[in-house]
Amino acid sequence: MDAFYFLKSRTEFIRFFYAEGSKGFADVKFQIENGMPPFDDPPYREDAEPPYLSEWMDAETAREVLGIACISMLSDSLKLYFSTLEERVIRFSFENRKAAFRNGFVPAYFAALGEILDTDWSDCPVDRDLIEQVVLARNRGQHGEDITSFDVRYDAAMIEKHPRPFFIGDDEMSVCTSEEGSLASLLMPTLKVSADGLTKALNEVDALAEWIEARMERACDWHQNRRPAPAASSRSETP
């Protein structure tokens, strides 16, 4: 089973899915902003609200929902990659799975693979903090809290663990960040997956898989070291 190949296939699909899906929403916003058909004949309004504001906001919300959907797919792809390494490629197990996964599957698999690949991860250039934030963003995105909005907000636990959240708009970060560099606002910031943010996350997941793939021979050594020594043969001597 080539887990690396199938993970790369998934990340490439997510790139395609976001790029193609976001085009239509970007086109709607561009047409509205430039008075292009079918938004070139706004209806009469007595208030000062810009024409087609609702349609513009729907297009922006749709792009944000698409970003959350893609992060969800990326998180699931990462989990499937790790579980495939566990069950079909390296073939390892957890002595106490419940305890190992108490803080999530990312720390659990990093700990297990660190032992197998003989690394403390200091030699790995991948942003492991971002990898974990992908999963946390997915978890938040799958559980809405307010029927009046599609917005996804960070919670206190996420901010405590990651004081500099990655999936956040520059405008909110500048407003919410204190002089010490941590979020200071009582209002939890909105979780936003931009095109650049998604690309960075995809690149980090790809880089992690490439790094693991390049060290697979260490997994063979790990298996070899775990094999029990052959029992010494005994022969009875005939007097």
What can you tell me about this protein's structure?
Helices cover 59% and strands 0% of the residues. With 239 residues, it is an all-alpha fold. The longest helix is centred in the N-terminal third of the chain and has 37 residues, at 53-89. The model has no long low-confidence stretch (mean pLDDT 89).
Features:
239 residues, mainly alpha
Short description:
By secondary structure, the chain is an all-alpha fold.
Query: What profile does the largest beta sheet have?
Result: none
Helix content: 55-70%
Q: Indicate the structural class.
A: mainly alpha
The span between the termini is 56 Å
Approximate shape: elongated
Oligomer: single chain
SS strand fraction: under 5%
How big is the Rg?
24 Å
Uncertain segments: none
Query: Could you tell me the mean pLDDT?
Result: 89
Spell out the helices and strands N to C. HHHHHHHHH
Number of helices: 9
Question: Which helices and strands occur, and which strands form pairs?
Answer:
Elements: H1 3-33, H2 53-89, H3 97-100, H4 105-116, H5 128-141, H6 156-161, H7 170-176, H8 195-213, H9 216-226
